[in-house]
TrEMBL record:
Compartment list: Membrane
TM helices/strands, residue ranges: 12-29, 35-58, 79-97, 117-138
Keyword Transmembrane helix part of the UniProt annotation: yes
Pfam families xrefs: GtrA_DPMS_TM
Membrane topology value: Multi-pass membrane protein
The species this protein was found in: Saccharopolyspora hordei
InterPro entries: GtrA_DPMS_TM (IPR007267)
Keyword Transmembrane helix among UniProt keywords: yes
Domain GtrA/DPMS transmembrane: 18-143
Keywords: Membrane, Transmembrane, Transmembrane helix
Highest rank taxon of the organism: Bacteria
GO biological process, one term: polysaccharide biosynthetic process
GO CC, alphabetical: membrane
Protein's recorded name: Putative flippase GtrA
Amino acid sequence: MAAQTATGARRYWRLLSRFAAASVVATTISQLVFLVVYALGAVPVAATVTAWLAGAIPNFTLNRRTWGSTGRAGLRGEVLRYAVISVTTALLAALATHHADDLARTVFPDARSAQVAVVWGAFLGTYAVMFVVKFVLVDRVVFARRRR
């Protein structure tokens, strides 16, 4: 029983470290895209959606490899389940950035760099909070059949 628990713990540490690495790649891409698009004047929701699209595809691809999913078998279901989680996260980020934009424009009406910093913080913060939730859902829902 103890050996089985150690094996399970090692599995989760391996998955978590790979999930974190994939998240770093996707987050770096999406953060850069968000900063550029928002700083150039896009509304927060448009910047969020553009950034989400830029990060979601590499994130799914890297996580699919992490969980050992290959080929076409089950791909459609994996994409759909991942899309629900990913879109929900993007919607939460869009809501957070929208409200952060309203706040930033009120508090810093003449300081665009401060507005960008506040709204970017809301974007990054949403994804930081969702990191743990997404890991559990990706493991238990998206690639659940790989665990059996």
